[in-house]
Amino acid sequence: MIDVDRKYGHTIINKLTCRGFDDEMRAIVASNLEGRGIKLHPGTNLSELSKTADGIKVVTDKGEELIADVVLFATGRTPNSQRLNLQAAGVEIDRVGAIKVDEYSRTSAPSVWAVGDVTNRINLTPVALMEATCFAKTVFGGQQVKPDHRDVPCAVFSIPPLSVVGLSEEQALEEANGDILVFISSFNPMKNSISKRQEKTIMKLVVDAETDKVLGASMCGPDAPEIIQGIAIAVKCGATKADFDSTVGIHPSAAEEFVTMRTVTRRLSPTSKPKTNL
Prior knowledge:
Blueprint: E1 11-13, H1 23-35, E2 39-41, E3 46-52, E4 55-60, E5 65-68, H2 125-139, E6 154-156, E7 162-166, H3 169-175, E8 180-187, H4 192-195, E9 201-208, E10 214-220, H5 224-236, H6 241-245, E11 266-268
Parallel strand pairs: 1-2
Antiparallel strand pairs: 3-4, 4-5, 6-7, 7-10, 8-9, 8-11, 9-10
Family: Belongs to the class-I pyridine nucleotide-disulfide oxidoreductase family.
Protein name: Glutathione reductase cytosolic
Cofactor: FAD
């Protein structure tokens, strides 16, 4: 979304973009944005907006003054449940207005179920469809089917895009019982050989050091969502790093890097957790 209007010289005022994603990948996205002419102001908030003859004057909490043609408020979203009078039906909501549900998407009212963004679980269209399918099977199909929110792939359609599945490096350390192995590959994609653009593709695998199970995969580069969608199947099926290593790559392609990464970039233990406050 950020890159749609990058040609207009946007300024982004926040911490690193893509909150909740792998910190290293977030830093790469930020670097790519800056390389495309977008000026970032990490950790900055707005204190004043006013119209001027030249546009809109923006004053930050750090005392900076900026002049902009347009100001876009992209401050997140909350469930749109305020006007539903849910309390009258006995439906409980949390402090941000999300409907509380159990593992089958049942609310506190026996006859009311809720799926999708209004439950504030994973706010993605395909996840809402999956939750609705589970609801239909449970209520109308005679099956007890729980939505499975593990290893949901997703993407940020920046330029180039970022896509991930499974656990980030930080999440893996939080959940790991032992060490994790991180494999990283960085290269200039063939698409850039003519334009000479110095914008690296970055791929990462996070692996459980004891079980060899691939816990997560991430990629920032051209076609990342298309590639990660296939990797997501392997992660969902519990593939090991050995499974990846034994798979023959398609050459020449960017995707083959996921099955040719052999060298451990770093080994981390839960006692050496990286900072996640980017």
